[in-house]
Specification:
With 313 residues, this protein is an alpha/beta fold. The protein has eleven helices and 14 strands. α3 crosses α4 and α3 runs parallel beside α5. The radius of gyration is 23 Å and the shape is elongated.
Length: 313
């Protein structure tokens, strides 16, 4: 399991019981993670779950309050040694581009910092790779949000790192740019690169990741194959009914599906049905009462998934 790095001594990068405190607030609580070579590992959770704190520790951007980060089995000092930093590419939430420089100049500056040979050619290659070759001479400050995100991705690739750390890479981008970035991550996966990314999108985790670690309140609540994790969260049955009918219906459904969790909503009831139960049974029973206006079976949202995974743990 990726949350127990000591069981995976061959990991490229491992966080070992890392905690991060900001004054009295605990952002990360004895968190462990092992990232194997060639894996795309996703950190899934809502804002404030601790994803960016993990990213910062893994990229060497923030010294943990306690615990350690290991590269190829050896604990790293802070700041990370240059030979390790040169093998890591980072795309932060804030693209941190130089707006007064052109797209090409931003990449050339990064290439010079990493001592990239044939920098001009490499800059042209990565601009073409992210679909910005025709914007090479445009100042970064004139680019759209999605283009800026793609430029930040190009900057992380310019020195050809073996390990990419991506903090919500599709945050606040449109659907076309989102799928373009997904394509870049899939290409890295095909090439056997190692990627650690954070996301609060369920479909992104499922589409891109080999392993997902779900976080809540600075702790890992579950880890594993994203398809299996999402399947284990079950389904939700939304039932539209009046308040005066909801109480009796709730009691009936709790008897029918004692393992399900029933919650009152503004429109009626939501029944959270576990993976081992059939949501259609609940839906049929609700419709059979004649007291409901409508029923819908849907996948759980991220908060519901985390609640389900947390209860399993």
């Amino acid at each position: 399991m990726p949350v127990h790095p000591d069981a995976d001594p061959g990991a490229l990068l491992a966080l070992r019981s890392v905690s991060q405190c900001f004054g009295p607030r605990v952002a990360l609580d004895a968190f462990s993670l092992a990232v194997q070579r060639g894996q795309v590992v996703g950190l899934l959770g809502p804002n404030g779950a601790g994803k960016t704190t993990v990213i910062n520790a893994a990229a060497g951007l923030q010294r943990p309050t306690s615990g350690s980060v290991a590269w190829e089995g050896d604990a790293l000092p802070y700041p990370f040694p240059r030979q390790v930093r040169s093998r890591i590419g980072v795309v932060p939430q804030d693209t941190a581009l130089y707006d007064e420089l052109t797209a090409a100049e931003n990449l050339r500056f990064a290439a010079d910092l990493f001592g990239v040979t044939h920098a001009k050619r490499r800059v042209a290659e990565v601009l073409d790779l992210v679909g910005l070759a025709d914007r090479a001479r445009d100042r970064a400050g004139t680019l759209s949000g999605g283009m800026r995100r793609r430029l930040a991705f190009a900057r992380a690739l310019v020195h050809d790192p073996e390990f990419l750390v991506l903090d919500e890479p599709t945050l606040a981008v449109d659907i076309d740019n989102r799928h373009a970035i997904w394509g870049h991550v899939r290409r890295l996966r095909r090439e056997g690169r190692t990627v650690l990314l954070s996301t609060n999108y369920l479909d992104e985790a499922e589409a891109l990741c080999d392993v997902v670690v779900a976080l809540r309140d600075g702790r890992a609540v579950a880890a594993g194959d994203p398809v299996d994790l999402l399947r284990s969260a079950g389904r939700c049955v939304e039932i539209d009914c009046d308040d005066d009918e909801a109480t009796a219906l709730r009691q009936r459904l709790e008897l029918l599906a004692p393992q399900a969790r029933v919650e009152a909503t503004g429109a009626g009831l939501t029944v959270h049905v576990g993976a081992g139960s059939n949501p259609d049974t609940v839906a049929t029973a609700a419709l059979g009462t004649g007291a409901v206006r409508g029923v819908r079976v849907r996948a759980p949202d991220m908060v519901e998934v985390l609640e389900a995974l947390g209860s399993h743990g």
